[in-house]
Write a structure and sequence with these properties.
Elements (H helix, E strand, L loop, with lengths): L1 E5 L3 H11 L5 E5 L2 H10 L2 E7 L7 H9 L8 E6 L5 H10 L1 E6 L4 H61 E7 L5 E3 L1 H7 L10 H7 L5 H14 L3 E8 L5 E12 L5 E10 L1 H70 L5 H27 L8 E3 L1 H7 L1 H8 L3 E6 L7 E3 L1 H18 L4 E11 L12 E9 L6 H6 L17 H11 L3 E6 L5 E8 L26 E5 L3 H13 L3 E5 L2 H10 L6 E5 L7 H11 L5 E5 L14 E4 L4 H20 L1
Parallel strand pairs: 1-2, 1-3, 3-4, 4-5, 12-14, 18-19, 18-20, 20-21, 21-22
Antiparallel strand pairs: 6-7, 6-10, 8-9, 9-10, 11-13, 14-15, 15-17, 16-17
């Protein structure tokens, strides 16, 4: 999709391009109203990111001009302004057609999130429009078929009228007393009998009427004889050659002077062609209604999937942001507790410090689950043999399930490997086992199996084409109703009692599957148990299964040389904790609260710094952007990029020497420093 960036200052456009590059969309730029409309005429644009203050036309006037054209009514217009807008200004912007407003300084994550939401909404809207067009096309086709059938029916009626004169109509006269009929030639042709061999009587004529219609014909005849009204009946006949024909007969009764019926005369019409046309028309109508219902269901399902995706994306963004801020708080708490522990000697105080540290570490584990749901947890994908992995943790699974739950596994020979994070997959299976145990308080069976399926058979349109490994975890527990199942993967939703669960187990599995390029599917009914299916992409055949990594040794080296370290973080609590850690290790620390301050400090010192430790998520210049600038101005300067999201920003992994997830300990930052200095030395020597 195209995103149009509008600003009279190229430097601002360049800044927005850097921030939005990781969306993977096509970015086009304009510095004047003329260029804006040239792009709009040539290209399909999903989002316009526009500065409010511009020399030729301000953003309000330009937005109003864009909205005057019906062609551009679905484009999302987002204002960017460095000046404070009053409520009246905002109302004016919304009246002009804007959908959102981003203040300056721009927070990159906020801008990316807002643009991503409106691009996805535009894409889904276009998909729905295409579906509507397809539905309208099919309805038009069926309407044309219906009109053609109507024409055929009309033509058939015309042919029937002509056929009556040529033999599709016959006349008859029935002697009530004797039961004999007098037929004309047309009547013999309709019944398909030879006048020389067939004598029409009440019995012989009744024998040619279809058995299912004889009672109705007798009723119509009897009513006419008693009442004197015209006899009318529609029925089928079975000719001697077994051909079934539809007929309508109409007759009038003649009475004698005493009021007794003596004869009945009438005509018979062969309406077989009309009945066939009516049946064909009815079938066409039923097919048309079926297809319209089918297309309506597909559209409703697409809308439901769109709303669900938007809801989960919004929850994910909120959850990821909360986890990031919580990680920063835990960074300050854990760092301070670690330093304080070195200065406390009495056992009671040490126990209290250990309790506080354990609580903070549990909080850190909780944020990892939040980040896993928000798909912002760092994954380390490697080639995994699922059968071997489950075998390796089988004892742990059995201990988690307890003695009352039986565990079975089913993995066919030659099962292909997958590409996934081993630790996250093990944790996901353990979470599912614990959920299953809680759903089977009286015991039961938990089965884990795996099969290879094609993406087209999973029911998930967002999966890339190809084969996936489906890991199925099924229990015989209490199951869930439809309302519970719809919320089961949402964060903090739990069916357990207070204090018995965080509600993050399934949400973590959902996030891990999605971040790994797969999907999660839940099937459950009350009393029928629950089956959780995790779809994960297969590994490339040429990749080998990774060997278990050796256990890491102690990372803190007290004999590190005394370094001058620049610490950059906009959060004063986090920055203070990191500075205290490094100073406790004997290093000299220079502080900076932003990327701009960091560059100024380096320039003032003539670049005399041994190492830079920077946060990533900072307003204005992000940590990744700072590292990129440092690489250009100070080649070989070791850098460590820290992130409360525990994820590698797009492009940053190839720029920073070392990444470090918050919260970190003194040992972890010491190890990161060694690796960063070693990487910087190799770069300088190269």
């Amino acid at each position: 999709m195209n995103i149009l960036l509008v600003d009279d200052q190229p430097s601002k456009i360049l800044s927005h391009e850097v921030i939005l590059a990781e969306l993977g969309e096509n970015l086009i730029t304009a510095t004047s109203p003329r260029e804006v409309f040239e792009h709009l005429l040539r290209s399909e644009v999903a989002v316009v990111l526009m500065d409010v203050q511009m020399p030729e036309l301000d953003g309000f006037e330009l937005a109003a001009m864009i909205r005057e054209h019906p062609r551009y009514e679905k484009i999302a217009i987002i204002f960017v302004s460095a000046i404070h807008l009053t409520d009246l200004d905002r109302l004016r912007g919304y009246a002009a057609g804007a959908v959102d407003y981003v203040p300056v300084p721009v927070v990159p994550e906020v801008l990316r999130a807002k643009v991503r939401v409106f691009v996805d909404l535009y894409r889904k809207t276009r998909q729905l429009e295409r579906m509507n067009e397809e539905l309208e096309r099919r309805v038009a086709e069926r309407t044309a078929e219906l009109e053609a059938s109507t024409r055929r029916l009309t033509e058939s009626e015309q042919r029937r009228s002509l056929a009556m004169a040529a033999g599709s109509m016959g006349s008859w006269d029935w002697n009530v007393a004797t039961g004999d009929y007098a037929w004309d030639a047309g009547q013999y042709r309709i019944y398909g009998v030879d006048p020389a061999q067939f004598r029409p009587t009440r019995e012989t004529v009744a024998a040619l009427v279809h058995p299912d219609d004889r009672a109705a014909v007798r009723r119509a005849t009897g009513d006419a004889l008693r009442s004197g009204r015209t006899s009318r009946a529609e029925f089928r006949i079975v000719r001697p050659d077994r051909q079934v024909r539809w007929c309508i007969t109409s007759g009038a009764t003649t009475f004698d002077a005493d009021g007794r019926p003596v004869r009945m005369s009438g005509v018979t019409y062969d309406i077989t062609e009309r009945k066939l046309a009516e049946e064909a028309l009815e079938r066409l109508n039923e097919e048309l209604e079926r297809r319209i219902e089918e297309r309506t269901r597909e559209r409703e399902m697409a809308l439901a999937q769109l709303f669900e995706a938007q809801k989960m994306d919004t929850i994910g963004q909120l959850t990821g942001g909360v986890a990031h801020d919580f990680n920063n708080l835990l960074m300050a708490v854990l760092g301070s507790l670690e330093l304080l522990r070195k200065r406390v000697v009495d056992e009671r105080s040490l126990r209290l410090l250990d309790n506080a540290s354990e609580g903070a570490k549990r909080g850190a584990a909780l944020t990892k689950r939040l980040l896993a749901f928000a798909r912002r947890q760092e994954l380390k994908p490697e080639v995994v043999d699922v059968a071997a992995l489950v075998c390796g943790i089988e004892d742990l699974l059995r201990r988690a399930l307890g003695p009352s739950v039986r565990l079975t596994t089913d993995f066919p020979d030659g099962l292909p490997a997958i590409q996934a994070d081993v630790n996250q997959l093990e944790l996901a299976l353990l979470n599912l086992a614990v959920n299953a145990r809680d759903a089977m308080p009286d015991g039961g069976l938990l089965s884990i199996s795996a099969t290879v399926v094609d993406a087209a058979r999973t029911g998930f349109d967002r999966l890339r084409p190809g084969e996936y490994l489906c890991i199925a975890v099924a229990d015989t527990g209490s199951g869930m109703d439809a309302a519970t199942l719809a919320k089961a993967a949402e964060p903090f939703f739990t069916t357990k009692g207070p204090g018995k669960g965080t509600g993050l187990g399934l949400s973590m599995v959902h996030g891990m599957a999605g971040q790994s390029g797969g999907a999660l599917h839940l099937v459950s009914e009350p009393g029928e148990g629950t089956t959780v299916r995790i779809y994960l992409p297969l590994a490339a055949p040429e990749l080998a299964v990774a060997e278990p990594a050796p256990a890491p040794g102690p990372s803190f080296r007290p004999d590190l040389p005394r370094l001058t370290i620049l610490v950059v973080d906009d959060d004063e609590l986090v920055r203070t904790g990191a500075v205290a850690m490094l100073e406790d290790m004997g290093h000299h620390v220079v502080e900076a609260a932003s990327g701009g301050q960091a560059l100024s400090a380096l320039e003032a010192r003539g670049g005399a710094v041994d190492l830079v430790v920077t946060d990533h998520a900072m307003p204005g210049m992000t940590g990744a952007e700072l590292v990129r600038v440092l690489g250009e101005r100070y080649p070989g300067l070791p850098t460590i990029l820290a992130s409360g999201y525990a994820e590698t920003p797009v492009g940053a992994g190839a720029i920073a020497d070392v990444r470090l997830a918050k919260p970190f300990t003194q040992d972890e930052i010491a190890s990161a420093m060694e690796r960063a200095i070693a990487a910087g030395s190799r770069l300088a020597q190269g």
